[in-house]
Amino acid sequence: MKILIVKLSALGDVVQTLPSLTLLRRVFPNSEINWVVDERNAEILDKHPYINKLLIFSNNNFYSFKKFKNFLKNLRTERYDAVIDYQGLFKSGIITGLTKAKYKIGFSNHREGSPLFYNVKLPPYDKNLHAVKRYLILTKKAIEILGKVGGLEVFEEKTEPIFSPEILKKDLHFIERPYIVFVPSARWKTKWWPYFCWEKLIELCKDIAQKFDIFITGGPFEIELKSWAKEQEKKYPYVYSLVGKLSLKELVTLVKNSSAVVTVDTGPMHIASAFERPTVALFGPTSPERTGPWAGKFKVLKSSLSCSPCFKKKCENQICMSKILPEEVKKALNEVLY
């Protein structure tokens, strides 16, 4: 049995697909399972024990004939029994359609015309269903198509996300005592909680700082966040900026070993869920029912505005996030910590 997973990005979406990988591997223990992933997220799947081969994709593949030719050759080397499109976008649909596969599987209400590339279109999914559950439903249907029709309930009970041992053995030498991770940024600017709210929260955490350090994380290209985090590091002896300093593997280790995580709707939040770390998740333009924390002890704080969730990447005032008060977040943090 040869199966190909198509899930390119983003980081949180890749993490939320890991339980489906677990289910596929446990139902088909001797199968070959490959995965097409965006190069930005490939590190988190590197040397994964359940993946036989990673196929690295980049948007640049579409703009370079040579790169696209090489990617296509690699993609079509194998003749798959099934390709499962977990992404459900135009580019993942193209990748699915270009494979040599008996079954090209996805939901009929996947976006951007991607179902045009499937030869097996599953009934529409409930858009308000959590992504992890949605992916598991897709996986179960694919397993049934591949001929396994009984006892799936037993397997579904054991669908925890598995990470590569290469990630789990990472050692962060700078850690000296228990710590909390703050994650202020996300790919959508509308998901960010305002800096003045984070500053107030840091101030409120003086009592917690007697036992815990605070690490602020962020990507290497978030220049403004890097500057702000540096200011907090200078101002508060218990705050440390890791913005732009961690590899993806180191980020996973940081979250895994944390005492708690305070985060907006972004990839590290899903990593925290995967390791069942105590989490406070802040939501405005997106829906926690669809993409919120999904395991462990967590608190979700969200705006009560009627326009939320709007699922917009741009907004003039971003008032939904600023309506979440630092005092509420501090209270929630105390509840998940103790």
Structural features, described:
This protein has 338 residues and is α/β, with parallel strands linked by helices. It folds into two domains: 2-163, Rossmann fold (3-Layer(aba) Sandwich); 170-337, Glycogen Phosphorylase B (Rossmann fold), CATH 3.40.50.2000. 36% of the residues lie in helices and 18% in strands. It contains 13 helices and twelve strands. It has helices at 11-27, 65-75, 90-98, 131-145, 152-156, 165-168, 195-204, 223-235, 248-256, 267-274, 288-291, 319-322, 326-337, and strands at 2-6, 32-38, 53-57, 79-85, 100-107, 120-122, 179-183, 213-216, 239-241, 260-264, 279-283, 298-302. It has a six-stranded parallel β-sheet with strand order 3-2-1-4-5-6, with helices on both faces. Strand 7 (179-183), helix 7 (195-204) and strand 8 form a beta-alpha-beta unit. The relative contact order is 0.12.
Which key phrases capture this entry?
Rossmann fold; alpha/beta; 2 domains; single chain; globular; 12 strands; 6-stranded parallel beta sheet; 338 residues
Secondary-structure map:
Layout: E1 2-6, H1 11-27, E2 32-38, E3 53-57, H2 65-75, E4 79-85, H3 90-98, E5 100-107, E6 120-122, H4 131-145, H5 152-156, H6 165-168, E7 179-183, H7 195-204, E8 213-216, H8 223-235, E9 239-241, H9 248-256, E10 260-264, H10 267-274, E11 279-283, H11 288-291, E12 298-302, H12 319-322, H13 326-337
Parallel strand pairs: 1-2, 1-4, 2-3, 4-5, 5-6, 7-8, 7-10, 8-9, 10-11, 11-12
Helix pairs in contact: 1-4, 1-10, 7-13
